[in-house]
Amino acid sequence: MKHSTTQQTRRGRGPARRIGRTLAFVLPVVLVLSGTLAVSRVNWSGGSSDPVLTAADTATSAGASRTAKRAPQDVLRDKLLTELQQENPGVALTHLQQAVDERPSLARHCASLARALGQAAVRVYGPTRAQSYARPVCDTAFATGVAAAHS
Q1: E-assigned strands of the chain?
Q2: Between 134 and 78, where is the model more confident?
């Protein structure tokens, strides 16, 4: 009697098990084929000849050129150079020190930023006046930049 109960239980799960096995086989095949078709539709040459992707490619490239992902130190350098021209090198050096204090990851770029400020200060203010703004921000990198631009 026990044998017949087991047979009925197996038969009861039969259709569900067959559907599950079919899905287990068919679903990966469908996913692989759809992925292959999607990849084959992408224009990998760089030109925008495919009308399906043209609008998306154009929007992406336009957005990327406007808001290009720039390194934080490059953004900071541009900001500090603008401050140097609009205010004076002292203000830019103060903001450089504050930025390094707020974001310690910028510390490794501090010397190069200060040197760039020193070189820009020589172009804007001349070597003597630029040197008067020197202070121990990022060691003596600002003064090194002034000296390098002057020589």
Answers
A1: none
A2: 78
Identify the DSSP state of 139. Answer: T
Over the stretch 24-65, which tens digit does the pLDDT of each residue have?
877 777 777 777 766 666 666 665 554 444 444 444 554 555
What is the spatial distance between Cα 38 and Cα 40, in angstroms, rounded to a whole number? 5
- State pTM to two decimals: 0.54
Residue with tokens 């203000």: 91
On whether the CB atoms of residues 141 and 110 are closer than 8 A, the answer is yes
**CA gyration radius for the chain?**
32
| Whether 130 contacts 121, CB under 8 Å | yes
Q: How far apart are CA 26 and CA 71, in angstroms?
A: 46
Q: Which residue has the tokens 């830019």?
A: 92
